[in-house]
Amino acid sequence: MHYLPQTASCQKYFLMIVSAYIAAVYHSMKEELRRNAPGATPVKRRGGSQASQQAVGDLSALPGMISFSQEYVASELTQNIFTITQKIQKKVTGSRNVTQTSELFPVLPGSHLPLNKPALEFVKYVCQVLSLDANIVNQVNKLKRDLLRLVDVGEFSEEAQFRDPCNSYILPEVICHHCNFCRDLDLCKDPSMAQDGSVLPQWFCSSCQVQYEKDSIEMALVEALQKKLMSYTLQDLVKVQRLTKLSPTINVIITYNPYRGHSCHQADDGWNGTKLSSLRRNDTCRIKSTEQAGNEQS
């Protein structure tokens, strides 16, 4: 939600749609439980065309609640989302002369997507969250198809597919200095939120709610970067092999360079390096000295 722009009330509309669906399903479930309570008069519900989808959905869900969820999404919720999407489009279109649409989206930790269509992102976010309910997948798919047509985006186009707007970087085994609680900390997806919804550059222990030491997190990041640099530097080294068949003391090092291919180098005098561009990374080569090669030819 926080990756939606606050312009045109996208975040507020998102909360309103999702909370309205949750509240409606909750009240329907309470009503269904009351009807199915011992001593209550059973109510026979007519079966609709969604019987096959009900079987695929959550078996623990009540049949009446499933039918209500499907009808609610197909009627009332669909109308509300259509109205809200049109409002967002009108507000964004009217503010284009003031600022670029790409500048409307907040830049938060982990942001990596070039977002420039608030109405489209609102549609994708809402439909992605609603589709988490397996009982209304078919209704949500139809709703998304109609909404994409409204914002003039193809159903099977790349920009119509939902992508996580937040990258993930997990720092393993972060230990709290206060309670010694250890956990993996996602620096991008586990930030602390202020009262106004803004992201604060600090993280708290999930056990004792004490703030982590920034110095320890920074040092862990520096160590992780050093390990990556070391692995990048040593990635060209393929094999170090001592070949005693050529000479009792010949040390051959096979290295790989992405620009020059494989090559062999030997520090002893009397032997020249040989280009081995046809070798693969894990190949084992047999190198013959110049004198041995001449004897075989003769």
UniProtKB/TrEMBL annotation:
A Pfam family per the record: zf_DPOE_2
GO MF assignments: 4 iron, 4 sulfur cluster binding; DNA binding; DNA-directed DNA polymerase activity; single-stranded DNA 3'-5' DNA exonuclease activity; zinc ion binding
Keywords: 4Fe-4S, DNA replication, DNA-binding, DNA-directed DNA polymerase, Iron, Iron-sulfur, Metal-binding, Nucleotidyltransferase, Nucleus, Transferase, Zinc, Zinc-finger
Annotated signal sequence range: none
Cofactor(s) demanded: [4Fe-4S] cluster
InterPro entries attached to this UniProt entry: POL2
UniProt subcellular location: Nucleus
GO-annotated cellular components: epsilon DNA polymerase complex
UniProt GO BP: base-excision repair, gap-filling; DNA replication proofreading; leading strand elongation; mitotic cell cycle; nucleotide-excision repair, DNA gap filling
Catalysis performed (reactions): DNA(n) + a 2'-deoxyribonucleoside 5'-triphosphate = DNA(n+1) + diphosphate
EC numbers on record: 2.7.7.7
Similarity comment: family membership: Belongs to the DNA polymerase type-B family.
Role noted for this protein: DNA polymerase II participates in chromosomal DNA replication.
PANTHER family: DNA POLYMERASE EPSILON CATALYTIC SUBUNIT A
Name of the protein in its database record: DNA polymerase epsilon catalytic subunit
